[in-house]
Structures are given as C-alpha cells and as structure tokens.
Amino acid sequence: MATVIAVAGKGGTGKTTFSSLLVRALLARGEKPVLAVDADPNSNFAGALGLQVTETVGMVLEEFHGKKLTIPPGMSKAAFLELRLNQAVAEARGMDLISMGRPEGQGCYCSANSILRDVLERLTDNYKFVVIDNEAGMEHLSRRTAHRIDVLLMVSDPSMKGVRTVRTLIDLVAELALPVASKYLVLNRARELDPRLLAEVKSLPVPLLGLVPEDPAVTEQDLASKSFLDLGNDSGAAAAAAGLLDRLLTETGK
Question: Core-most of 158, 222, 233, 237, by most CB within 10 Å?
Fold first, then answer.
C-alpha cells in the first residue's frame, strides 16, 4: 500500500517547490515508483518536475460531459472514463503525474475533485509513495481530494500569518474528521526564527518537522524554467528536504 503525503498551506509559501523537493528526495532514496498529484487547478507541479501534461482530469471530464462519445462495445461509461483518466497520467522515469487541471465548464471543482479521489484510490496501490500538491487555502481538505492521508505536511513561510493559517488548517482537519495519520509543520524559506515566531510555532498542536532555507539555486532553477529534480547536491533546500524526509520516514516507520 502506498504512503500518501499531502502538502498544504496558504498561497505563496512554496508548497509546489517543497512538494517537488520531496519527490526528488524520494527518487534519490530509490523509493520508486512515485505518483505526483497536482490537485491545484493552476497546475504548476508538472512544470516544477519537468513534465509535460497534455491532458488533465478537468479536460477529460469536459470532453466526457460535453460531447457524444463513442464508447467501445461491452464497456460501461464508468470503465471508459477510467480508461481516459489513466491516459491522462504523464509518465517519467521512476515517477508518474496526474493533474487535476481546470474543472469542466463553469462552476466549482467538486466533480473533478470527486473523480480525482476515486482514480487515486485505484491508482495508489501501484506506487510506493504518493505526493499531493494541494491548492492554496483549505478547499481541497473540505472536498476530501484524497481518500486517506498518511502524512499531512503543512507548509508555512516564517511569518505569523502563515503559522496562524496552519492553526486554522489543523482545526479544519479535526472538524471534518479527515483520515490523517500524522501531521507536521514545515517552515519554508527559513533559517533562524524570531523568538516570537518560535513561541507561536511551539504553541501549535503539531510538531515542527524542520526548516527549508532560502536557496539561490532554487530561484535560478525556477527562473530558467528547469526541473527541481535536476538541482545539484549542493542545493541547500534540496539537502534540507532530504533530511526532513529521512526524519519523517523514521518517525512514521515508513
């Protein structure tokens, strides 16, 4: 059974970058295959991993609901939809990616999220690890995009607003009784913490997994539109993410 790691937090904290560094660390450890899930309608995870996405869950649903389809004889609509969604999986060495993309037509993302959740439930058994990069805010949690979450990593920048958003996320997880086995805080683009911020962090009912420093190599990789998987071993952020993964797997027994 796959270990499902979901990354959440407010916008602008570097969730997609951190999710990519987690995938990089998993591949470096030989924890293959990995399924990366882009559950953000803005769909930045693929680019951060150096993958090209030609189809998304939203696009498949739009096609399915908007056109008269020719379904092969003996195949149900549900089976045909699952086939099309499997075709939307982008493949790479050691990892695959499925992207939620935009919803079909106008309206909310609820249908796309529901389908993505169902597909994930069937897909996850084929992978050792699943890393879900969620959209900013808390909507993905209330829609229960993942049928289960083994580890929820709540990413914040080193700011009071970011850390307090994490507190709101924790409250929402409890309120919705979401199936989350372990929860941790990760502070991104951080080194030494102001004592006032450290006090706020310590007041949270979840442990601090660790810090990921600001890294010029990450900035350059982003500006050059290159994959974060190709960061060198001298990258401070990549090394920190790998260290956090080691601690996480040790503490959770994965």
Answer: 237
